[in-house]
């Protein structure tokens, strides 16, 4: 079975490796063009392109596959049996979708039709879904609208961040592709003809459709007059890009816990301890007299407790501008050696 693989970020590398390890013939890889992916001016390969070159595979990097008919023709000449797409980052035009005789199949990181689109992992977390998963979907011209061949769900915990969840879903995508491709191959070689019926594809529901729109810089700014849970989900869902401001410098907030009594069974022992200390010192977990963004409590070994619109948030790990990510005592030192005098100061 000849496979043309489409993918760009690190998320897709597990799937590429799984196909190679399983013995599929990779006739080529299509990835996004080289980008300036850091502050430097040097162009760098996408993670998928870098891995493909290590494997000795031919790589194509169209600026826009929809408008580059020359690359479309080159891909058609590869005579791939099937196209496998995992987080490629461009919409495939109908001319490309029609090229592979055994179809184009997408490994999508959500339980469709929830979170169609560009950033399903981030919005899954920020909207506090209890479950997510991966579906292997037959691609069509609509945005993530195709029928599902195989699907598997996983549970999400309160301490899950986008990086960790992406790794879990990446591994699940690779696993499900190895389940799906033999089914596709058998159905495609069956002379009875109705491949969709033979594969028992499941059409997506018309109910519960949501769209995971692309993220903007505004999504990463912490607004302290929101609820503790909303801020925590923002930090974990948009990890590691969420930030606030401290003494005129940007402070990336990398790990938090919402000190909400109803969630105590989902918090760490450290967070429960901080909740107890703040409760005793304030005599009210509602923090009605504190102002959002105000530092309420400092622990050199654990972190900072900060007021929000309702319950406090414990900041456990952060990164001050031009510094390294730190937690515990190193975090307090990076903030300028905070002490009791800092209580009452504000994040902006």
UniProtKB/TrEMBL annotation:
Stored InterPro entries: Fmt (IPR005794), Formyl_trans_C (IPR005793), Formyl_transf_N (IPR002376), Formyl_transf_N_sf (IPR036477), Formyl_transferase-like_C_sf (IPR011034), Met-tRNA-FMT_C (IPR044135), Met-tRNA-FMT_N (IPR041711)
Keyword Iron: no
A GO CC term assigned to this protein in UniProt: cytosol
Record-level Gene Ontology MF annotations: methionyl-tRNA formyltransferase activity
Formyl transferase C-terminal domain: residues covered: 215-334
EC number: 2.1.2.9
EC class name: transferase
Family assignment from sequence similarity: Belongs to the Fmt family.
Name by which UniProt lists this protein: Methionyl-tRNA formyltransferase, mitochondrial
Species this protein is from: Paulinella micropora
């Amino acid at each position: 079975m000849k496979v043309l693989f489409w993918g760009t970020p690190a998320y897709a590398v597990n799937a590429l490796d799984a196909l190679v390890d399983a013995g599929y013939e990779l006739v080529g890889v299509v990835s996004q063009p080289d980008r300036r992916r850091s502050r430097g001016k040097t162009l760098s390969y996408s993670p998928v392109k870098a891995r493909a070159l290590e494997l000795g595979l031919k790589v194509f990097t169209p600026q826009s596959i929809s408008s580059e008919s020359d690359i479309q023709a080159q891909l058609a000449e590869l005579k791939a049996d099937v196209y496998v797409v995992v987080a490629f980052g461009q919409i495939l035009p109908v001319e490309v979708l029609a090229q592979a005789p055994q179809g184009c199949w997408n490994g999508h990181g959500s339980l469709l039709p929830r979170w169609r689109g560009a950033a399903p992992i981030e919005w899954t977390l920020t909207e506090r879904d209890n479950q997510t998963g991966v579906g292997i979907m037959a691609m069509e011209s609509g945005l993530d609208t195709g029928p599902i061949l195989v699907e598997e769900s996983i549970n999400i915990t309160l301490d899950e961040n986008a990086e960790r969840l992406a790794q879990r879903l990446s591994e699940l995508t690779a696993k499900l592709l190895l389940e799906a491709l033999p089914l596709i191959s058998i159905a495609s070689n069956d002379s009875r003809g109705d491949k969709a019926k033979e594969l028992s594809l499941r059409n997506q529901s018309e109910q519960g459709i949501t769209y995971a729109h692309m993220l903007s810089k505004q999504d990463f700014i912490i607004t302290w007059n929101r609820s503790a849970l909303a801020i925590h989900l923002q930090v974990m869902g948009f990890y590691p890009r969420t930030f606030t401001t401290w003494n005129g410098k940007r402070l990336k907030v990398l790990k938090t816990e919402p000190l909400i009594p109803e969630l105590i069974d989902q918090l760490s022992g450290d967070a429960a301890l901080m909740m107890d200390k703040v409760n005793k010192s304030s005599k009210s977990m509602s923090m009605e007299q504190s102002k959002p963004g105000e530092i309420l409590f400092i622990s050199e070994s654990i972190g900072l407790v900060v007021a929000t619109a309702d319950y406090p948030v414990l900041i456990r790990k952060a990164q001050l501008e031009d510094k390294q990510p730190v937690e515990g005592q190193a975090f307090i030192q990076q903030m300028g050696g905070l002490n009791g005098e800092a209580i009452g100061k504000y994040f902006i």
